[in-house]
Design brief:
Elements lengths: L1 H27 L16 H6 L1 H4 L3 E14 L2 E7 L4 E7 H4 L1 H9 L5 E10 L5 E12 L15 H6 L1 H7 L1 H23 L3 E2 L5 E2 L11 E4 L4 E5 L4 H9 L4 E9 L11 E10 L3 H20 L3 E4 L2 E4 L5 E4 H9 L9 H10 L10 H12 L8 E7 L8 E2 L2 E12 L2 E8 L4 H16 L10 H9 L4 E7 H9 L24 H4 L2
Parallel strand pairs: 3-5, 6-10, 14-15
Antiparallel strand pairs: 1-2, 1-4, 2-3, 4-5, 7-9, 8-9, 10-11, 11-19, 12-13, 15-17, 16-17, 17-18, 18-19
C-alpha cells in the first residue's frame, strides 16, 4: 500500500513538472498567460442554451475553466465551465490557425480559457460554440480531482472550497442560493421600511446573548477587546436614537464547540422595530420566511432531510409550559418553587446545576422532551424570566417574559422578544447575570453601563428578533451540516505545503 502511494506521488509530481515546463515554454515564446489582464465576456453558458433560438449563428465570447478535452487530428472538442454551467467548444485548426491549434493541443484540463466564436448545434443536437479564437487566460499548475469521482472527501472539500466549487455543481448551487437568501431578506425588510446598519465587531463588553466570547488585545489603546457575540445592544441604542426600524446582517463570534449546526463564527441577522411587540415579530417572521422560501425555492413548502415543512399555513403558537405539558406530560403551572422543580428533574433523570432555578429547569425539560418534535413551523412563546435577561415580563405573570423561539425541523431558527426598556429592571437583570458569572457561568453577561444609560434616555416599546442565517440557508438548500453552507468553515490548521511547484518556480 505504501509502495503504491509512493508510485502515485511520483506520477503526480511528474505531471506537475510537465505543467510547469509548458508554462516555461509559453513564457519563453512570449505567450505568458499571467500577463493577460482582461477578456471581454459577452455571455455565460446558460445564456447560450436558454437563448439559442435568438443566438444561433451569433458571435459570442465566453470564458471559463476547461474541464474536458478530446483531440481528434485537425479538430477537437473541449468543455468549458463558467459560473452558470458548462458549454461545449468545437476547436478546428482551420478556424483558429495552425499555431493556435498547436498551443491548444498542449493546454491542460483546469486551464482557464477565453473563447470567441459562433453559436451552433452539433449533429447530435448539443448547443456549442465553433471557436474562432482560443486564448489561454491562466495556466493551472495543479491537477484537478479525477472527473468521475470528483472531490468527495469532506475534509478536503471544506479546506479547499475553491476545488469543491469547481468539481461539484450542487455546491455552487448551494452558495448561489445562499446569496439569494440574503438578498431576498434585504429586499423584504427594505420594502417594510427597515434600514440596514453596521455596528462594531470589536467591543469592550460582549453582551446580548449567553455565549463565551473570543478575546483579543488592541495595541493602540492598550486595552483588551472582545469579538461580538450578538448584534443586540448596539441596535437597541439606535432605537433609542430614533431609528425606528433597523437591521443588521453580520458575523458574530462565539467561543464554543463545532458540530453540524455550530461554527464559532456565523452570520446573524437581528432587527428591531419600535412600537411593536413579540406578536408583531411573529407576524414578521411568518411573512419573511414565506417570502424567502418563495424567492429561493419557488415554493412555500420546503423539504429538509425527508421532512416536508409547510410555510403557507399560519404557524402554530404555543407556550413553553404547554409544550412541555404536551410532550413531557409535566405541568409546570403546578410547580411553584425551585426545590419542587429540581425534585421533578431528579425523577426524570434530567441533569441540572446547583445555580439553576425553576425557569432553568423548565427549559431543560423543554430541550429534553420537546425540541425534537417541532418539525413544522412553530412559535414557542412565553419563556421563563431566568433564561431571558433582556426581555419584558408578562404583566399578568412576571415569572415569564414576552419572548418566542421559532422552530422548524427540531431546530431553533429565530429568537425574539418584546424588548426590555425599563432601565431599573434591566440593571436588576444585569446584577443577576453578574452573580451567575461569579458562580462560574462563563456565558453570563456583564453589566453594560452605557447601554443602561441609553435606556435611561428612553427606548420606546420595541420588538426585536435574531435569525440564524446559516441555519436558514441549510433549510432552504437541504444541506446536512452548517459547514456545507459556509464557504470557508473553521477548521483545525494543518501544517501542509502543496506540491504545486510554485515554490520552486518563484525565485
Amino acid at each position: 500500500m505504501a509502495e503504491q502511494k509512493k508510485v502515485q506521488e511520483q506520477d503526480i509530481n511528474q505531471l506537475l513538472k510537465v505543467r510547469r515546463e509548458k508554462l516555461a515554454e509559453l513564457q519563453q515564446n512570449g505567450k505568458d498567460p499571467f500577463r493577460i489582464t482582461k477578456f471581454d465576456v459577452t455571455h455565460h453558458s446558460t445564456d447560450l442554451k436558454e437563448g439559442y433560438d435568438e443566438l444561433e449563428g451569433a458571435s459570442v465570447s465566453v470564458a471559463g475553466r476547461m474541464m474536458f478535452k478530446r483531440v481528434m487530428g485537425k479538430a477537437s472538442f473541449c468543455n468549458l465551465l463558467d459560473l452558470k454551467g458548462n458549454i461545449q467548444i468545437y476547436v478546428a485548426r482551420d478556424s483558429i490557425g495552425e499555431d493556435s491549434y498547436k498551443d491548444f493541443k498542449k493546454y491542460d484540463v483546469g486551464d482557464i480559457l477565453g473563447i470567441s466564436g459562433e453559436v451552433f448545434k452539433t449533429k447530435t443536437g448539443e448547443i456549442s460554440i465553433h471557436a474562432s479564437s482560443v486564448t489561454l487566460l491562466s495556466k493551472s499548475l495543479q491537477i484537478l480531482p479525477e472527473k468521475f469521482h470528483g472531490l468527495t472527501d469532506t475534509d478536503t472539500r471544506y479546506r479547499q472550497r475553491y476545488v469543491d466549487l469547481i468539481m461539484n455543481q450542487d455546491v455552487r448551487d448551494t452558495f448561489i442560493k445562499r446569496s439569494k437568501v440574503i438578498s431576498s431578506i434585504r429586499r423584504y425588510l427594505d420594502e417594510q421600511g427597515f434600514m440596514e446598519v453596521e455596528t462594531p465587531m470589536l467591543v469592550s463588553n460582549a453582551g446580548g446573548a449567553a455565549a463565551r466570547p473570543f478575546e483579543t488585545h488592541f495595541n493602540a489603546l492598550s486595552e483588551d477587546f472582545k469579538l461580538r457575540i450578538s448584534l443586540e445592544l448596539y441596535l437597541k441604542r439606535l432605537i433609542v436614537g430614533g431609528m425606528e426600524r433597523v437591521y443588521e446582517i453580520g458575523r458574530v463570534f462565539r467561543n464554543e464547540g463545532l458540530d453540524t449546526r455550530h461554527n464559532p463564527e456565523f452570520t446573524l441577522m437581528e432587527l428591531y422595530q419600535a412600537y411593536t411587540d413579540y406578536h408583531g415579530m411573529m407576524d414578521l417572521t411568518e411573512n419573511l420566511y414565506r417570502y424567502v422560501a418563495k424567492e429561493v425555492t419557488g415554493s412555500e413548502i420546503i423539504t429538509y432531510n425527508g421532512h416536508e415543512m409547510d410555510l403557507s399555513k399560519p404557524f402554530e403558537r404555543i407556550t413553553m409550559v404547554d409544550a412541555v405539558k404536551r410532550y413531557a406530560k409535566v405541568d409546570f403551572d403546578a410547580i411553584h418553587t425551585t426545590e419542587e422543580a429540581k425534585k421533578l428533574a431528579d425523577a426524570h433523570h434530567i441533569e441540572y446545576e446547583d445555580r439553576h432555578q425553576k425557569g432553568d429547569i423548565l427549559n431543560l425539560f423543554f430541550e429534553e422532551y420537546v425540541e425534537e418534535h417541532l418539525i413544522q413551523p412553530i412559535f414557542i412563546i412565553d419563556h421563563p424570566i431566568e433564561i431571558s435577561p433582556l426581555t419584558k415580563k408578562k404583566p399578568e405573570n412576571p415569572e415569564y417574559v414576552e419572548r418566542f423561539e421559532f422552530f422548524m425541523n427540531g431546530w431553533e431558527m429565530a429568537n425574539a422578544y418584546s424588548e426590555l426598556n425599563d432601565p431599573i429592571d434591566q440593571r436588576e437583570r444585569f446584577v443577576a447575570q453578574e452573580k451567575l458569572l461569579a458562580a462560574g457561568d462563563d456565558e453570563a453577561n456583564k453589566t453594560d453601563e452605557d447601554f443602561l444609560n441609553a435606556l435611561c434616555v428612553g427606548m420606546p416599546p420595541t420588538g426585536g428578533i435574531g435569525f440564524g442565517i446559516d441555519r436558514m440557508v441549510m433549510m432552504m438548500t437541504d444541506s446536512a451540516a452548517i459547514r456545507d453552507v459556509l464557504l470557508f468553515p473553521t477548521m483545525k490548521t494543518l501544517d501542509i505545503r502543496f506540491e504545486t511547484g510554485m515554490h520552486i518556480s518563484l525565485k
